[in-house]
Batch of 2 targets.
Target 1
Amino acid sequence: MVWICFGGVSFALLGIVVGVRIRYFASYGLLAGYNTAPPEEQARYDVTGLGNHVGNGLITIGTLLALATAAFGLGSSTWTSVFVGLMVGVAFLIVVGGQKFLPGARGPGEHRWLRRLLPERAFRALETGTRQWLIECPCGRTQDFWDTGGVRYKAVGEPRQLYACSACGRGRWHKVRKKGLGELGGPGNRPVP
Ligand SMILES: [Zn+2]
């Protein structure tokens, strides 16, 4: 019992310390995957976004683990399971959410789980809605947003997204915008003008 609490607190502290270092001190060498990638690939990462994402996640997990340990020490099995459950959820979100910071890591395969999750009609509506949008590189190359693995439905605004452009071959900030009249219905892909 004492040793379980001791282990729990140690891991909680470790998670928080590593999280704070990545999040606030830009210790990106601690990011698994990024630290071993070759420099030209590292240049394509949205490393600030990834660092904030992973850092926040680790701090949250560390805090939840500390709470779970405290609940366990106080003998509340209900709260222990609640905090452990939340921890597993956050860990899942870190892994899934982290993908978007890896340029070009997305693809149509991203829609596979949506297809499994949603009824056919809802999935088609989502595809139709998303296909009204495109992603545009500063070099002028555009791509159907759905084909990049994105999802955008009944959305407003024009967010920016880091994406590996197939025309310039590197990760750049793309504009996500609604297609103009001439672009609707077309294949959605336009070569560099
Ligand atoms: Zn480009």
Target 2
Amino acid sequence: MMSANGTCRECKRCVSLLLPPPLQGSIGLRLGTLAGKICEMIIRQASPDDALRIATIHVEAWRVAYRGIVPDEYLRSLSVERRHLGWRQILEVAEESIWVAEDGERALGWISASRSRDVDAAQSTGEIWAIYVDPVCWGKGVGRALFAAAEQDLRRGGFTEATLWVLKDNERALRFYTSIGLVHDPCGDRVEHVGGKALVEVRLRKQLVQ
Ligand SMILES: CC(C)(COP(=O)(O)OP(=O)(O)OC[C@H]1O[C@@H](n2cnc3c(N)ncnc32)[C@H](O)[C@@H]1OP(=O)(O)O)[C@@H](O)C(=O)NCCC(=O)NCCS
């Protein structure tokens, strides 16, 4: 149940979403098409009870999105059980904001955001730490809705821009980020080693309009 300002009267944890076009006009929840059905989606803060679903989405999205980028052996070795434990601990003391999108039955994706962890970042720079959507829901607007919630959260925290790191070969994510207004930050790339393979990451940036 949403109040006029979009805050959930019951749990105080749902946020109003002033979504950017083409999703504008909806507050708190919006209609979307999932698996051929119309359903409602809300964005709310994650709780420790979400740990298993967050871990499952995390592992499944990694396995699909990073196939051919991250070594297969590493992707096979990912464990929902291990990530579940890790996520439970994170969610109990989370210093970052973690939001989940759900359709009333289960979480469809999640995003975490907070201050930037980059050493060259200004105080006013926030960061999208991670965003993962259940692969069966890709292309249905879940990522956009999550990103809009995280942007709103960062703005409320006083941040005037957001950055994030993405694998240079993650074409789908790069297309998604470009479509929602992020631009390449020519600060130089960085290299991360995953499963023994060197992977190039690029930083993207977006001004947060107040
Ligand atoms: C990247 C990611 C978060 C995007 O999430 P998503 O839910 O698929 O994103 P959206 O549906 O909001 O938008 C993606 C596409 O769907 C389109 N779309 C948006 N709303 C839509 C709707 N209601 N119906 C159909 N398509 C829609 C967008 O225009 C976009 O199209 P394009 O990619 O062809 O340009 C998701 O693919 C993912 O979890 N990837 C794996 C993890 C990952 O790479 N994370 C980023 C790490 S840095």
